[in-house]
Amino acid sequence: MRVMGVDPGLTRCGLSIVDGGSGRKVTAVDVDVVRTPGDMDLAHRLLAVADAAERWMDTHEPGAVAIERVFAQHNVRTAMGTAQAGGVIALAAARRGIPVAFHTPSEVKAAVTGSGTADKKQVTAMVTRILGLPVAPKPADAADALALAICHCWRAPLLERMAAAEAKAAAAQRRYIERLAEQRKAVHG
């Protein structure tokens, strides 16, 4: 499974591509950070982020896009920009028919370090180790984008099994309710 990991942001947006193999084997394919100047108007910053993400999707053809879910931040303006950047990337993926998954920072940290409260240094160290990289990815946005892709590679099979089990349970419940209705109708008929 090829996954595009995205650490969304307006000033710096981390993009990565990771190939997931059998088990927990993952291989880094590409990583970069898209930067936009703070004095550029919002619409053009979002366009620059979207254009870069679209080039990546068209070049690398990921089977899924994993985007960090915006979580409570003290700076509302930063949170809005982050959410908007993630939104334009999700839109670009949806237009291409690529499934999009959102993962919280704590889910990503737990997946790659074993602790949902790990700091950026720990995440970067584990990403470097997991991918067997000769040097740590910099800046932190690049490491975070790789961590998102790794997290999705490892979590996607479990999430798919859970969704299939939920769908099976819902279908069984519908059949049960239909049988009950048929029995009531036959008794009260």
Automatic annotation (TrEMBL):
Active site as annotated: 7, 68, 141
GO biological processes: DNA recombination; DNA repair
Residues that, per the record, bind Mg(2+) 1: 7, 141
Cofactor: Mg(2+)
InterPro entries documented for this protein: RNaseH-like_sf (IPR012337), RNaseH_sf (IPR036397), X-over_junc_endoDNase_Mg_BS (IPR020563), X-over_junc_endoDNase_RuvC (IPR002176)
Catalytic reaction list: Endonucleolytic cleavage at a junction such as a reciprocal single-stranded crossover between two homologous DNA duplexes (Holliday junction)
Protein name as annotated: Crossover junction endodeoxyribonuclease RuvC
Organism: Nocardia gamkensis
